[in-house]
Amino acid sequence: MLFSPVPMHIPDGFLSVLVSVILWILSVAGIGYALKRVGTDLGERQVPLMGILAAAIFAGQMLNFSVTGGTSGHLMGAALATIVLGPWAALLVMVCVVGIQAVVFQDGGLLALGANIFNMGIVGVAVGHFAYRTVCRFTGDKPWAIPLGGFIAGWLSIFIASLACALQLALSGTSPANIAVPAMGGIHALIGIGEGLITAGALAFIAAARGDLLQTKAAMGSSKPVWAGGGILAVLLAIASPLASAHPDGLEWVAEGRGFLDLAQDPLYEIIPDYVLPGIANEALATILAGIVGVILVLAAALAVAYSRRRMTEAR
Amino acid sequence: MNPSTLDPYRPGNSLLHRLDAQVKVGLTLGFIVATALLPPGAWPILILLFAMALSAIILAELRAGFVLARTMLALPFMLAALPLLFTVGSTPLVSLPWGWTLMKEGLVRAINVAAKAWLSLLAALTLTATTPFSEILVVLRAWGMPRLLASILGMTWRYLFVLAGEAQRLLRARAARSGHPAHTPGRPGGTLAWRAQVTGGMAGNLFLRATDRAERIYGAMAARGYDGEPRTFPQPPSTVNSRLLLFGGWALLALLTLAGLLFWG
User: Fold this and answer.
1) Across the interface, do A298 and B188 touch by the CB < 8 Å criterion?
2) What is the pTM of this model?
3) What is the ipTM score, two decimals?
4) What's the gap in Å between the CA of A122 and the closest CA on chain B?
5) Would you place residue A116 in the very low, low, confident or very high pLDDT band (cuts 50, 70, 90)?
6) For residue A59, what are the contacts with CB-CB under 8 A and spacing of at least 6?
């Protein structure tokens, strides 16, 4: 299966448009900066490498191991990519993986792709980088430092990304925070163990077989801003999630009450206030009118398509 | 399992297959945005959008079984929207045991989320079933996707199935040597940590093979004069007809969205 085993790819329809757009903007900004950094730091030699490693992360998600019963553990790969490639290249690799999963395999929505890139790309990579660098700093050059850092980076990247995902769902009014946060966080705290174990095993193998790959400039060079950003993201999400979970009404108020969603919709009523009239009869009339207009529109479109199709067939 | 069967692209010569990729990508994105903008309860508009998606699927000559199987993907994610049934709204519909009460507003919102998710999936699937990814990539590049990102994406797509095959060979080798669960019913061998470690080793192995392959590919490309600039065939300019179709479709979707927002917003 090339479908992601980590249930974190938000499909379309689950996020409100405003939340989707904000996360798209954040993701595009992140991608743009990463492209700039990769473009200056690395040469054209890196294009095949990053493309093929993205394919490898993708294919690596097929590797599984049975946990118990019918369930199995898999790999998401953000932590592994950031440890081997450095954060900027890893972000681009994850963008490719998540993007192809959404565009080609419908694993995650297109409008929600910004959110998915943010969760699995930006959050996953930054938090993974933060965790790995922190562990390596404290353990020095002990032989078990690399697998331990890999395990913690893998687990934390999955867990924090799932918290971000739950908060987005809650902000969109799709899932109440007091249910979404414990549910998503709990499931992914378990899934993250699999991710951590695989990441640790992969790093132990790479360190034994090709230790030089982990000593390269891209992998060794600690990026201070990313390290700090990952730490801030992890702390913020870890604090915000229980808060939102304890006060779901607060988030609901932000999302639905006098919060920003109404601001986005208000002007529409002001432009054409007469259309929103009270009364059931009027509502029914409105429904019927909309139905009729829609049917005519679709009919016209279908006729046009059928007509052009006949012309094309005749032309052949 | 043959990795090439995973590609949702279904070769064909239907009207949709021959349509300009730019129109298909544009209309699919427009469709998904229009679906997302609809307020809950705008059922007539949702049905009209469904009719549009269905016409596209029929015009693309896709098999119903293929479409249904591929669009069941979002089903597990519906769990996230289920709590809506019991927590949103004030009009109780049905009282369930253990103090749960089904709410009308919650039911409307949950069905709304499910319908939107499924409609968006239908549209995205129709696009990828009739358009090879390389053509989608050309459209995205023409619409301003950065060159570096487009190059990496193209590379990923070209070698995705090669590496999927590689991963399958690793899995087959493990199944042959350490016992396949199907042949040894009951508990799988070893401890959980050991199994995870083996899988991790395999993932690392896949990574190393990919790195080596990338070296060879870069060498081969450099030998043919690669300088970082991917070269493609010049694209034929989009015709007036396809542009008309694109803007007409967008206008239709905008009208439907407006109707939904006005009457149910």
Assistant:
1) no
2) 0.82
3) 0.87
4) 16
5) very high
6) A2, B160, B163, B164, B166, B167, B206
